Structure formats: C-alpha cells, structure tokens
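Fold this sequence, please.
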Amino acid sequence: MGTPAQILVVDDEPNIRLTLQMVLEGEGWEVALAPSAEDALARLADEPFDAVLLDVMMPGGMDGLTALGVLHGKYPDLPVVMISGHATLHDAVSATRAGAFDFLEKPLSRERVLVTVRNALRESSRGRELAELKARAGRDYAVGGLLGDAPPLVRLREQIAKVAPTRARVLIQGESGTGKELIARAVHDQSERAAGPFVKVNCAAIPDELIESTLFGHEKGAFTGAAGRQRGQFELADAGTLFLDEIGDMSLSAQAKVLRVLQSGELTRVGSERAIKVDVRVLAATHKNLEAACQAGTFREDLYFRLNVVPLVSPPLRQRASDVPGLALHFLAQVCEENGFRRKVFEPDVLDALKAWRWPGNVRELRNVVERMAILSGEVIGLDDLPDALLEVPERSVSDEAALAGEGNLRDLRDAAERRFIVERLEALDWNISRAADSLGLERTHLHKKMRALGIRRERG
C-alpha cells in the first residue's frame, strides 16, 4: 500500500473546508486545512503536498489569484485547483494563465471534485517521474568516481549490476570522497524502483533530537515547534529507495526504530499511535568500521546484520591511480563548461603529478584541485599551477641507476632520465636557474617546481 496523497484545502468558509475534507478523506487521501492564503503558504513551507484546492475570494491581505501566482513561482510542479462561488469568465482565464490546473465553481459537485483531484494527482505524479527521469538522464557518474577502468572499479560496477535488480539491502563502505552516494544512486537507477523516488538522509548532519522526526515524520504538536503534520523520509521514499548516508553516526534510539521498520515495513510518526505501511528499499553507507562499533556498543548488531546483506566497498582513489588522468581531464572539461571558460589543457607533467599524489580526500579532493587550477590558470595548466603539496617528492621504487638499466616501471625510467638531464644542464651552467630554464625552454618557476617534483637539489660541498 502506497503513502496516501496529501491535499491542502484553502478556503475562508469553515463549512466548505469541512465538506471537502470529508469528501477527500473518503477516498483515502490525507487532507490539511488552511483558512487563508497566508496560512497555506506557511504550511507549504513546512511540509510537502501533492495538490492544493484554493478559493479565489478570501478576506485578508492576499486573495486566491495572488496566492496562485506565488505558488506557481515557488512550486511550479504543484497542481493548484481554484474554486469560487462568484467566478467570472475573466477570473477563470486569469487563473489558467497564472498556472491553475483547473477551475471549480460553487456549489461544488462531489463527483466533479473527485475527478478533478484525481487528474491533478495524476499530473503531480507524472511531474515527479519526469523530474526524476531528467535528473537521472543528466546525472554524471564521474562526479562520484564511477568513471574509470581500474580493476577495483570494474569489479564494483559488476557487483552493482548484480545486486541492483534484487530486493537485497546494501551496505556501502568506503572513505569520505569516494562516491558512496553515487554507488547508491547506481543501485537505485538499475533497480525495479528506478521510476520511484531516491531519498537521501545524511545521518551525521541531523541533530540527535531531530533524527526520528526526520526519518519517521511527526504530528502537529508532537513537540515544541511542530506546527503541523510532517511526513518523514521513509514515507517520502515509499515505492522507491531510501539512502541512509553515514549511518554509523545515528543514535541508538533511532537505530531501534529503523530496525523495527525494516522488520515490519511499518512506521509510526512522532506523536502518533497509527502505524503507516511503507514499501522502501534501504541502502546504507558509512566510512566507519561498524563491526568495531557493534563491539563498542555504539551500533546495534541486529541492525548491522539487517543492513549488511550485500556489502559493497567504494575503493579509495590511491588504489586506482590509473584512473586519475581520465578523471582530471573529465573534471577540467566540466569546470570549463560550468564557468564559460575556453577549453583548457594539462601539460603532461601535471597529469603525472596528479597521478603520483595519494589523494587522502579521494575523488572529491581531485575535483576540487582541478577546479582551483582551472580557475587560476591560463589556457595551458602547468606545474606552476599545481598546489605546492602535490609536488612533494614521491619515494623512489628503484634508484636512478637501476631505472636506467631497465629495472622498475616506465615512470621510474622517465623520471630518472629527466632528472639526470636537468642535473647535467644545471651543473653545466653552475646551477644558474634562470639560464638553465632558458636553455630548457621552461619558465623559471616551472623549472623550480619540476626540480622539487623530481627531488633535484644542489649538493653543497
């Protein structure tokens, strides 16, 4: 059973409000009432609705047509049905031009109201599906790090393809910045729930006192500040996927309620005793060691086993260094397009330096570094544009002599040859950096950075 549609009725006449409430609730929909346009706008700012019935003529500072303009501007996909007992043709035309879904005249016919509301809800549902399809079509998986051909990533994509079509719960583990949310989205997009909502909750960003209300919703007056009924994230994810990011930071009391929902498929809003059935696939993610958290008593072991049906590991970028150049080129093109820059390019040495860095912040850090360089550089991004930290001298796997003799890998050989060539030129020019840079065809600062990257220093006797 899906979550009932939420309808807001706005009319200054109490009898009209109550009549519409009885008619609409008789169809199984949930109804909220507002006596004025100002009250309606306040309700909409706090909770989502699937349709609005709005009276044209209302006393106070804002009439229905003015409120319609505000609603259409703030919530363009929300269908608004206008109702009036004193409507003119001009009113109907004005309402339609202002974005009204339909126009009903008083006295209201029960059947006409129900047909109109059903059509409005159908339109609302289509709008949400279209928005989700557009978002999914335009989603760039490289942003979260799923672009690349390194073996760990290839294995991950194969695992996603296998688990996505099933109903199994998935626990995604990995360091910050590796793209755990993107993995969850990929699972959702390749599942039978792809047309349903994908709802994300960052458990680490929500205070403990609000996490239960956020997840399960609350009733009016459930606690100080609860001005109206609020649906929780579980309800909003009905028929779709709920992604609980950083679940290791969730309080024990919230963990217990999440476990009950996973076991029964039912939830209870804060301040209510009525159970609500939901159909939600839960995906969770964490950068913490949940097994250790279970042993420490900060995470429920029974919840851990419920979530960890299929574990997926998001590999750190240092384990897929071969993907770094491709990701950097992708991010560079993306940043240039976003900022209206002419197309920029990397010098080969820059890509080598990026590939050699260990990226403690993973793909997110790489994207930030590329964006910074793209903004501050000219059309060609060179070593001068790299952050100083990225030019720390990497440990050599073999000596220069061994590399030139054919040991080590291609990078070792190239670095050894380049190091020897630059040192010989510097020694021939008595370590005059400016003259050496001119003879090498480099900017002086560029040569300085290259010397740092290659670990070249003048030995003082």
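The chain has 19 helices and 14 strands. The longest strand covers residues 280-286.
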